[in-house]
């Protein structure tokens, strides 16, 4: 909640809403034949655009989930292919390359999709993902150089990360805005299912894809180099599959009316949203600090516990990893079912409390649990399920609902990229913690993060979310006006014709 009073009587909200719906830059009343045809085309697109936007966001974010989880088993395969040459430093480098790219994409594309529109961010993200996957799949070092191969792979993953990061603000904000138009009361559950659920499903998708390709390539006689390159090659399909549909979408009604495409006041924005920004950014940092290293290195952890060698180790690890991914999914369903009943903030607190309880159980009983692989995997999966239940489900939703349309992409992207900074820090410190303090401490530290997450969520996350996003736009516009800002709110261009036409019909 901002320092600015949200129920200020000094601002005429209805006047501001009228200004938003009928901006000074509106088109002339009489349209030329070319403009009339363009308007008819846009109106036809607008009828189904919100449905396309929500559906395609879900499919596209499956791709993001796949890219986030694909390195889990790739690390195991590279360990088999390159032996001691593939050190923990190289493993961390390849895993972090995606995350560093994601940080750049989240922040950069977040700004782009606020100024130029959600579709512009989506196009940039798709091209980056496709180009990155192609580079990774074809990775080689000059004259067979292993170091050259690693760096080629790293650059490709970094480029993929820019696209993956860009999908967060562009896809998620557009999905929230589209759901607000189509299904206001169920926006929260729908948003969770097309964002966090499909991102989490990416882990199962990655394991299933690896197992299918592994068996198709000959199972225990498979060429592991062929296996991982085929898996990465197939992963290019989902982003390309939905691209043609996403090009048919038009900007949401919220964006058309509430965008500030020129002269966004950054200081006023921070002054208004500082408290919410601390909540979403710090909570996301803590969540990614725990969940990303545990996801990236879970395959390596399980591989050390499974009694198998060579290619059989790859298969067994993938099977246990598949179970681990499946155990994490119920948290998504439960969270989607109860988010409207208990509220966003309370749901987030429940998830962080699960980190505290399960993290302490696994950490304190680690020496006994490692001798019983099924029990270890189940508890490990429950911890990840609690992560999905709370912060995994809530962070994207809260970041989309806490901020006005004009700055939603930027502040969502900023919060998410601070989260990925947490992922980088967590991934970089995971191995030193494990080597110097022992594996149990990776779980105990997760429990500590759970405590801090509870505190941050309770004091900095708003508990009045869930209403019409247009109301937040009105409050933010009123605040800017009260502070003397005189910029233009609403898009200028062809898509502005849609709302003018609909306004005239009313």
From TrEMBL:
Residues 1-31 are annotated as: Disordered. Pfam families: Sugar_tr. Residues 53-465 form the Major facilitator superfamily (MFS) profile domain. It is found in: Membrane. The keyword Hydrolase does not apply. GO terms for cellular component: plasma membrane. Residues 13-24 have a biased composition (Basic and acidic residues). This is Major facilitator superfamily (MFS) profile domain-containing protein. The lineage of its organism: Eukaryota, Fungi, Dikarya, Basidiomycota, Pucciniomycotina.
